Structures
1.
Amino acid sequence: MKAIEAINVTKVYPNGVVANRNVNFSATVGEIHAVVGENGAGKTTLMKILFGMEKPTSGEIRIFEKPVQLNSPHDAIAMGVGMVHQHFMLVPSFTVAENIMLGIEPRKNLFSLDFKRMEQIINEYARKMNFELPIWEKVMDLPVGVKQRVEIMKALIRGAKILILDEPSSVLTPQEVNELFVVLKNLSQQGITIIFITHKLSEVKQIADRITIMREGRVVGTYRNEELSESQIVELMIGRKFEYDISRVKAVPGEPLLVVKNLNYFREDGAHILKNLSFSLRSGEILAIAGLEGNGQKELVEILTGLREKASGEMLVDGKNVLGAKPWELRQLGISHIPDDRIEVGSALDMSVAENMISDRYDHPPFSGRVIYRKRSVVEFAKKLIKEFSVRVKSPTTLVRMLSGGNMQKVVVARELTNEPKIVIANQPTHGIDVASSEFIRKKLLQMRDEGKGVLLISTDLQEVLQIADRILVLYKGEIVAHLQNENLTETDLGFYMLGAKRQSQEELKELLVL
Amino acid sequence: MKRSLALLEIVRMTLTILIALLIGYIFLLFSTKDVGEAFKWFLYGPLSNQRRFVEFLNNSVPLIMTGLALSLVFQAKVFNIGAEGCLFFGGFGAMLVALKFPQVSFLHLVVTLFSAALFGAAWAFVPAVLKAKWKASELVSSLMMNYIAYLLVLFLVNNYFRDKAAGALVSYRFPQTAWLATLTRYRLNSGFFIALSVAVLIGFILYFTKYGYQIRVVGANKKFGFYTGINVVLTTFWVQLLAGALAGLAGGIELTAMYRRFVWQSLPGYGFDGIIVAILARNNPFLVIPSALFIAYLRVGANIMSRMTGLAPEVVIVIQSVMILLVTAEALLERFKKRIVEREAMKGE
């Protein structure tokens, strides 16, 4: 029997983006169904439609073979659909039990909750599903993997028979991913239908029964797991043969360009976010800072680029301490910055591609004279960059808002790599963009390295780190817990450090500055 | 698609104006028997003779200036609505120089107008500094500054510059060297041409200079501006000062050309009307001209209607308000927009 079905669904967003074109999709009861595709292929939109968060422009949804009209997630939940979002929807200061029962709490009377009954209900469910949960711990104290299980439980207890997970593994370490898969297998044996979005193909092969592949808003096809190999999936996803041909010659590092000494940062609420960081970045190398999201990377990058103030320690560029300098002063020193948020920070959506490409050099020739802004030379320059960085856009005067994520990121990268930087700070440079653009950007970063620039790569994507970094630092709870040369490393090796399960001794870490 | 969207925008504007007029008409129905006559004067009044036409143009002068001031700050997404106070204080600055400066022809007038702009900028300086130094909301502080300007200037004018020989609470008359000329026998404010040139100048600054680029980036996304190396705080600071100067100049022009005394006993409201002008113009300095003319036309039309029929001119306030509501109502005709977008998006099939 089919658990959930989308028939001929089309979705056009108000900005004219066609996210889904005549999509047909179905999942049968009790299967684990992976939906794969590049970013912007329409996976998330399809899931949002199935969960009632977006209304389709045309087409039909059926749940348990009954046509339904979903006006909001409430309707979907009532029909047994649950969704676990990429970013958790939990109240951090509440306990696990309170979060799970939020809105459906059993009560003793009008004013007090029945905590005993809560525990009973949750335990009963947990036992049935083979789950373990620290019921009375506060959510904010839990590791990400457990938070995710809380989310799953939240959906199940509301009667979900169909569970949609949006990139469930993207926030997890390899170890946590394995635990998640055990849970999912269990659930499917209980007759729960699981649909999950991902772009990690090894996981798809490992767990999915069937695979639906999407590309450019269309469904390319649905296949049984055994029918396809990983490389076949990739080909279907991107619509052509694809070979990851990022080859890396050995780095020839030179002088240190950026030296960080004893960097400490306390957040306004007193939390010690960065603890005594010391490292140096040399010319001609890519130094990666790996770690799970939220271990201080964001703060570190903002401090190094002048966006965040009030850190203590030293940041030496050309031997001068520039900690606390303004962004424009740091840019003059040749520090460029690819931010992790291309929409909020990296671009002005309502300005043209051309105007976005010169925002860091608009005030001098050839873009401006003493006073006059020369629009024509801006557009000429943009045309050149668009070609060089193969940005897919109709004209340089198109608004950045109209671009896909990958092309938007290329606009940011084009700007940041072409102002003759000495140091490139790249924060999640390929986060959430398509394979081809990712490959392009990684190659560009390698090219920068080979030209003798220093590249500081901050990334949670281990594949990316292992692919292009020369040295790797692992950041865990604001501390550097490992310093590794990128030779014969695996994701699992890094995973132990990222989870805090392993750390190098002070002696091993000492060499960081001496280099 | 661009063309059909632009067309939709024009249809939207026209529809907005028509609906507003219709509602105005309905209001008139309640207040007079001869609606046709009243409405005729309202719509056609400003064109009915030369004197009225000049009145209409004169009315637009301060509106263009304050409209420019506000579109400038709005472009930078700064919500300083202190144009009213700046205009009032600028008028005071003009009066000071007009009365105290040696009466050298031409130079006297130039210094008078310069002083008006300077006083306007000085008044805008306060919320601008509060914002830059302590992140005080410019909306609140600039609004408060309007009332401070009002009471402070009234106090000074009534106590130190009041012309006791005049029949009303006004300042001494400005000497002739500080007069801004009026043209033709219907007294066309020559400040009209100043306003037009200032509009072109501001438009030029905004779209064709690097400072304008800076302002637009800051307005488009402050975080992006800071990240990419623009001194956002400094930019918003200067923008407010420049806007204050424009509003102050508006006050100076109005007094030196139209009244030749400091005559205001209450806030004249041009600063607030400037908000409407800027919104209608979508903060585009070039569009401020037609936008201000349009508002002035409504105003003068209402006045003429009132004179000819004895109806209260307040009906124009209703029409204006309805229009603002509809102009800011993004969702008006949204369905059509959606359909155009959808059709265009599916064309590639």
2.
Amino acid sequence: MPFDAAPDAAPASLEAFLASVERRGFRMAELALGHREDALDAVQEAMIRLVGYRDRPASEWPPLFWSILRRQVTDRHRRNAVRRKVMAVLGRAEDEREDPLEMLPDPGEDPARRHADGAAWQALGRAVRALPRRQREAYLLRELQGLDVASTAIAMGCSEGSVKTHLSRAMAALRKHLEDWR
Amino acid sequence: MSRPDNEHDTPRALFERASERLDQGTAFRLRRAREAALQARPEKRPAWGVPAGAFAAAVLALGLAWWLPGREATAPIEPGALAGEDIDALVLAEDAELYAWLAEAPVAAPGGRQ
């Protein structure tokens, strides 16, 4: 079941808000895009654009940020799809992807655990990226990011009923993979 | 999918752990990005700041409207009738549709069919 991990209290400042979401935003973009540099770019662009709304009430920042980031991810996802097709036509290999273990470094952690986390993270990313776009967005925002249904609906630009439908289908599609975590 | 050490682990727990334990390099870049975003001033696009592509498209459209025969009844388009934001929106909409189409369009493999 999804949970509601989104903080209820309004952030004290825009900087505090950005600091509280930048890591989770990066991880979400990374899962969706499968590319660390693209994910960093998407988060940076989302932060820049959110600053344009700094005069809005602080309570509006979270859905705005996730909505902006979602669009950034969608744009990059499409550009990457086009780039892959162009590269395929040109007969060139796709860009080198980073080592998933490098994406989850924690020097003080048990190497075996780190290896397992890296492999699990890579597999989760593959499964998420295989979902249709709207299902992927619903899963990332509601299930992993922990937004409530209303905030997810705002971020996705759809109704709460649509969020539930997309999430239900995403969970069904991922069930095979998720069983390994139960 | 690989099973983590902790049998009660979930994608959500993995996501939380990944977000909390970010490598120092990425965390540093995110912090820098945040600082840069906060220092950036919202861009105020000048009225003449229409992208070159949009400007060329507008000129072409105006030229065709003037040149094509049988269009005398059509009211001439004033150059100022399209605001910069309108042109931008048109171009962005075209881009989005183009990207969506390109992303889903089949691509012929080199030396073979489809």
